[in-house]
Design brief:
Elements lengths: L7 E6 L2 E5 L1 H6 L16 H13 L3 E7 L2 E9 L5 E7 L1 H41 L1 H33 L8 E3 H18 L3 E5 L5 E3 L2 H17 L6 E9 L2 E8 L6 H4 L11 H6 L6 H11 L3 E7 L3 E8 L16
Parallel strand pairs: 7-9
Antiparallel strand pairs: 1-2, 1-5, 3-4, 4-5, 6-8, 9-10, 10-12, 11-12
Helix pairs in contact: 3-4, 4-9, 5-6, 6-9
């Protein structure tokens, strides 16, 4: 029974190691051929915990680090004079704790900024209405902008939690990817035009994909938003949908600032920004690509990033088509 446990278990008697299950032999690197005699344990932390437990008659806990992993060692005396040791891998637990702690810190910081702005603007607005009514309208616009930013951050946080926690089978659903691309590119058309950008849309009449329309909208909206926000003045944004074999492919590309190879490893992390100042000026929450990654996973799709610093970025999403759906041919451009 001990041999089948997923944790490392060892038993020590007066002569040394009396038993080690397969997981223990892996963790402390015991020689499997040494079963006929007590093998030497190459783990000083384990040996020290055993000696202390035998000497004090009490349970001893310590930690062991090996090959970049962290382990908890618990040594306890037994009624028959042996010392039992259980070694548990803490690496994933610690990593999860770090991610959660960083998430709370980042979320608190991101919420603190617009809240502080709203409070300051509210105080200034009260004085302006009394002394300088002409400035009141400008302050109201700033107040609305900060409130909208905070509202968007809260919505993104709720979407992220929903995408991360959703489990089990879901009701069959489908979405028209082509229509969502048309809708989202129309939404950002004015912002793109103000920056002199060329916004190009190449989609079929219909391109149905399997999955929640809300999740597909999250993917399209955030990719289009990023392509505009991180583009250069006078640049080009292209959103394209096509059928490739048994997949429906969405490509959103820009000719903007691009992403360095180092940043490409982290852009899908929550609150990670390649250019924090530019992102905040554009109203970004730092959650866009994290939302895209989780939504694509929920849609059983694939996500690919291709970027060259200073030249632009292309994000490609491959999604399963809705059952029996076929993307309609694209309409020719107007003369």
């Amino acid at each position: 029974m001990l041999a089948a446990l997923p944790v490392a278990v060892l038993l020590f008697d007066d002569e040394g190691l009396a038993y080690a299950n397969p997981e223990a032999r892996r963790v402390v690197e015991l020689d499997a051929t040494a079963a006929s005699s007590p093998p030497h344990v190459e783990a000083p932390a384990v040996v020290d915990a055993v000696n202390r437990a035998r000497r004090t008659g009490q349970a001893i806990d310590c930690e062991l680090e090996r090959d970049g992993r962290q382990w908890q060692v618990s040594a306890s005396p037994t009624a028959c004079g042996q010392v039992g040791v259980v070694i548990t891998d803490l690496t994933e637990v610690r990593r999860t704790d770090t991610i959660r702690r960083d998430f709370v810190l980042n979320a608190s910081h991101e919420l603190k900024t617009p809240v502080a702005s709203i409070q300051a603007l509210a105080d200034s607005l009260r004085l302006a209405t009394e002394r300088d009514p002409a400035r009141a309208a400008s302050m109201l616009e700033s107040l609305e902008r900060e409130a909208a930013r905070m509202s968007q951050l809260v919505r993104d946080l709720l979407d992220l939690v929903r995408l991360e926690e959703r489990t089990g089978e879901e009701e069959p659903a489908e979405a028209d990817l082509a229509e969502l691309v048309r809708t989202q590119t129309t939404r950002v058309a004015q912002a793109a035009a103000e920056q002199g950008m060329d916004l190009r849309v190449d989609v079929p009449d219909v391109a149905r994909v399997a999955g929640s329309p809300g999740d597909v909208r999250i993917v399209v909206a955030n990719l289009v938003d990023n392509a505009v926000a991180y583009n250069r003045h006078g640049g080009t944004v292209t959103a394209r949908v096509r059928r490739a074999g048994d997949e429906v492919v969405l490509e959103v590309s820009d000719t903007g600032i691009g992403i360095s190879p180092e940043d490409q490893q982290r852009v899908f992390e929550r609150f990670y920004r390649v250019d924090p100042h530019r992102s905040r000026r554009a109203g970004g929450t730092g959650l866009g690509l994290a939302l895209v990654r989780h939504a694509v996973r929920r849609l059983s799709g694939e996500l690919q990033l291709d970027s060259t610093l200073g030249q632009g970025t292309t994000l490609t999403v491959r999604l399963p088509p809705a059952p029996t759906s076929v993307a309609a041919p694209a309409q020719p451009p107007p003369p």
